[in-house]
Amino acid sequence: xxxxxxxxxxxxxxxxxxxxxxxxxxxxxxxxxxxxxxxxxxxxxxxxxxxxxxxxxxxxxxxxxxxxxxxxxxxxxxxxxxxxxxxxxxxxxxxxxxxxxxxxxxxxxxxxxxxxxxxxxxxxxxxxxxxxxxxxxxxxxxxxxxxxxxxxxxxxxxxxxxxxxxxxxxxxxxxxxxxxxxxxxxxxxxxxxxxxxxxxxxxxxxxxxxxxxxxxxxxxxxxxxxxxxxxxxxxxxxxxxxxxxxxxxxxxxxxxxxxxxxxxxxxxxxxxxxxxxxxxxxxxxxxxxxx
Length: 291
Ligand SMILES: [Ca+2]
Ligand SMILES: [Ca+2]
Ligand SMILES: [Ca+2]
Prior knowledge:
By secondary structure, the chain is mostly beta strands. The protein has four helices and twelve strands; from the N terminus they run αβαβαββββαββββββ. The chain folds into two domains: 88 residues, no CATH class; 152 residues, Jelly Rolls (Sandwich), CATH 2.60.120.260.
């Protein structure tokens, strides 16, 4: 770290010392291809996956949300150099740091789950590869898989008609992910009471295997006290007649009046081989009215 820092200092000094520096427009991006613990890396754990991404000279400093990925570096550098990214290049990632971005304000009557349809980034052909999922705190092997791979989910297996290209798959081991949804923008509605929540998702799995998905919902007050929990699933092979596919399930209930934020968690339980706990179209809608 000290050595890298010294080299970076030399480079920055050289940039600042340029006679034309005042007329130039530099961007310096600092990142690393992986993190680690001790002297090792290579496990699918936050300590090995989470890396810094520092963009110096970006158009507008501030928070980047959802958290950027290493694949955002190339589009960001190209944008800075005025190169328009063409879709046919098939680049993953997006130009980041152009303007600060944050999660949208919560509203009544709209789906509050971010990237609940697994479509925000390209999906993987099911394999051991694992992508972290934007908008979710994804510390394990849960990832986005593409519909259509033999012995996984096909486009015409039971599921949503508007399924898009991708769904959530458990990956290579038991895993889970969650997202916290800040409800402060609708706090006064919630405090007045009579707000109903509707948690829905398509969940399922593969054939006779009991790999199974569960979606939990937990309501917390501003001090982090759990006020209410509910959820759907897990859906065992028997529950879906040993059919490969995903099936709509719902949990409807009352939102506690002192709720400040809500956590939606996907738990992918493994029974056999690859973890075929599947989900798509995870949605949480809050509305006025009683259950
Ligand atoms: Ca989808
Ligand atoms: Ca993952
Ligand atoms: Ca399996």
